[in-house]
Amino acid sequence: MQITGGWLDHPGTRAVCGMLTGAGHRALFVGGCVRDSLLDRPVGDIDIATDARPERVVALSRKAGIRAVPTGIDHGTVTLIAHDLAHEVTTFRADVETDGRHAVVRFSDDVATDAARRDFTMNALYATPEGEVVDPLGGLSDLRARRVRFVGDPAARIAEDHLRILRFFRFHAWYGDPAAGMDAEALAAIAAGSDGLSRLSRERIGAEMRKLLSAPDPAPAVAAMRSTGALMQLLPGADDRALAPLVHLEGDRPVSWIRRLAVLGGPGVADALRLSRAEAKALDTLIDGVGNGMSPGELGYRVGAEVAGDILLLRGALLKTPPTVRDFDLATKGARARFPVRPKDLMPRYKGAHLGERLRHLETRWIASGFALTRDQLCGEGDG
């Protein structure tokens, strides 16, 4: 079995592989670049596994004139930047000791040992620099069947790093076959070990949730999270029942993981996932918009057409009142509208607090008119 793709022939990738193999070491692509190539999906990060120890990788890179960054050298990882392309090169290794978050490793010369420490079989696929697939654990058949399967004992893999619980659901959302269901043994292990999620950093949890909710349809995976107790561990009070209707209503609209997060609800979400200030503000705007009673036109005027559209979708999913084309048109009309009255139009008749109250009153009348009333109609003969 061969993988193909222009990235294989990138001069930087050829240089890194040639540096290792030319010195008598193995260089095997591993993980996402192999998996996604086999699925004809775009390749992002390029990971390379090797029997060369990290110090040896650094020494060889200096000799070859390739920049080396010791991003995780204690765990065997060196990032090599060749022709402006980053390659994460990691020595074959095995986990000696784990605590659910971090691992102590020993280096190895054996690719099968390296494969045995990985999370899922579809991530334990390797390929030579020529593109020949190396499959120590039968991951190729799982990938073809869109089956997300832990390497070895699911409980043991989860105990090594509880983030693998979230990765399991995320990989199902992106790579799994919803019709085939999920591995019952894996779900049982997740249910038994979900309390370990509380030991993870909020940054790691937030990053995984962002990727999960950005999948084309994360609803089946999130429903499974709820059934195992994992969702409540992460977001107490969250409710995923409106997520599937929301995904349906979204249609061809661009995916927004914040919009999907908003439909889950639950208190303290921004803090639980360590959202940025901008993300937390966007989430609050969506949640407030669902229940503030504003018309589609006023929503568009207050928050813009895009955010108003998100709020209309959320209302449709949560309140079971799907928005109409007219609702979106009104939101767009409101976003384009400009209040025609300025403070100077009401002065000197109104001043200070009375001026602000008058402006708000006229703005309310203008919005209620569908943005139709003119400046003269609003101000009246005594105000202009």
Topology:
Layout: H1 11-22, E1 28-30, H2 32-38, E2 46-50, H3 54-64, E3 67-72, E4 77-82, E5 85-91, E6 93-98, E7 103-107, H4 111-116, E8 126-127, E9 133-134, H5 139-144, H6 154-160, H7 163-175, H8 184-193, H9 202-213, H10 219-228, H11 230-234, H12 243-250, H13 257-264, H14 269-272, H15 277-291, H16 296-303, H17 305-319, H18 325-336, H19 343-346, H20 352-368, H21 375-383
Parallel strand pairs: 2-5
Antiparallel strand pairs: 1-2, 1-8, 3-4, 4-5, 6-7, 8-9
Helix pairs in contact: 6-8, 7-9, 7-10, 9-13, 12-17, 13-15, 13-17, 15-17, 16-17, 16-18, 17-18
Write a structural description.
The protein is of the alpha+beta class and 384 residues long. It has 4 domains: 1-144, 2-Layer Sandwich (Beta Polymerase, domain 2), CATH 3.30.460.10; 151-230, cca-adding enzyme, domain 2; 235-337, no CATH class; 343-383, no CATH class. It is 52% helix and 11% strand. It contains 21 helices and 9 strands. It has helices at 11-22, 32-38, 54-64, 111-116, 139-144, 154-160, 163-175, 184-193, 202-213, 219-228, 230-234, 243-250, 257-264, 269-272, 277-291, 296-303, 305-319, 325-336, 343-346, 352-368, 375-383; strands at 28-30, 46-50, 67-72, 77-82, 85-91, 93-98, 103-107, 126-127, 133-134. The strands form 2 sheets. The protein has a 7-stranded mixed beta sheet with strand order 3-4-5-2-1-8-9. It has a two-stranded antiparallel sheet with strand order 6-7. β3 (67-72) and β4 (77-82) form a beta hairpin. α6 (154-160) packs parallel to α8, α12 (243-250) packs across α17 and α17 packs antiparallel against α18 (325-336). The protein is elongated, with a radius of gyration of 27 Å. The N and C termini lie far apart (79 Å). The mean pLDDT is 94. GO terms for molecular function: metal ion binding; nucleotide binding; nucleotidyltransferase activity; tRNA binding. Its cofactor is Mg(2+). Keywords: Magnesium, Metal-binding, Nucleotide-binding, Nucleotidyltransferase, RNA-binding, Transferase, tRNA processing.
